[in-house]
Amino acid sequence: MADGAKNQAGSSQARTGQARIPKEPAEPASETQAVQLGELSDLLGYVLKRAQLKVFEDFLSCVAPLQLTPAQFSVLLLLDNNPGRNQTEIANTLGILRPNFVSLLDSLESRGLCTRVRSPHDRRSHILVLTEKGRGVLARAKKLVVSKHESRLNELLGSDGRETLLSMLTKIAREF
Amino acid sequence: MADGAKNQAGSSQARTGQARIPKEPAEPASETQAVQLGELSDLLGYVLKRAQLKVFEDFLSCVAPLQLTPAQFSVLLLLDNNPGRNQTEIANTLGILRPNFVSLLDSLESRGLCTRVRSPHDRRSHILVLTEKGRGVLARAKKLVVSKHESRLNELLGSDGRETLLSMLTKIAREF
DNA sequence: GATGTTTGATATGATGGATAACAATTATCA
DNA sequence: TGATAATTGTTATCCATCATATCAAACATC
Asked: A87-91: which pairs have CB atoms within 8 A and are 24 or more residues apart?
């Protein structure tokens, strides 16, 4: 499918002395005749990926003041809802491989948002614990997500549209 | 959101002499009590990403005999629908940055699926041309996608469900 | 107690995405 | 026309994500 987006940000205008404003394409209509997506616009995977990038991008900007990535946010959320779990359990439910989960946790722990505690029952495993600060950050993040991110989606799709979308995506994620 | 999936493939069963079959968890119910996703299952971004990974995974396996990634497939499709375009135009419409598009094209060209032709009007740019072989591969890929990939989605969502999903995702991709 | 498994961790490689810079070419306009 | 700027494809490079193999410590099983 090819994806990416999020780029094409810079102004690209010459910045040497007095600006020149040579063409001013007004729109992304750089191409005289727009390239046709054709069958691509009916390919679910393609549209799915483009939508996902957009949603992540918006999520990131909404939670920007808290400096949380989607992955970090989901970990905090999971820790809050599942006290007493170890790294393997949390990583597995998020589809993160244990080796890759280590550095993710390192960053959260170094920011004082969670802690690794040796389990008394199994001294191999680390119980993951949300700190006070972590709970606070999570609470603020949730508010931002609801008030800015999800509300915008509601606005675009309608509350029932959003429900429909969610259930279809859940079905794909589970049964496909 | 955290994502990944696609992993957890290996058997993990001991393979030393006669197998032992120690526990046989029967299901991925490794955790005595399943970890609760909680609010995560209502986060559109999270579900969106999980669904996207599933769809890409299936796409990849359906088109496996032709050795085409989603990105490569979308390029071939676009070239077929838009003859006479150069690298920048194709890359832009797919949201691929020009530098990253180079190696993608290299691989397609080295497999004889497309060619770079110097434009007579602008000797800087390369017109991208589908070869005969490229057209053949694309045709077969399309058939596989329709008969195996998209048909499975239709089966899961229903033809109208698929339409609904597509239009909502398109709306997000465009207007969000 | 010997053997194998699990847990967290490290090292490492593959891949995707992003930026800077460059030569060749073209466009602009003074 | 000639100087200056912009565009095109490319290379190099960096960063993040993803994936595999391996390891020591701790546990489980028999």
From this structure: A87/A116, A87/A125, A87/A126, A87/A128, A88/A125, A89/B31, A89/B35, A90/A128, A90/B35
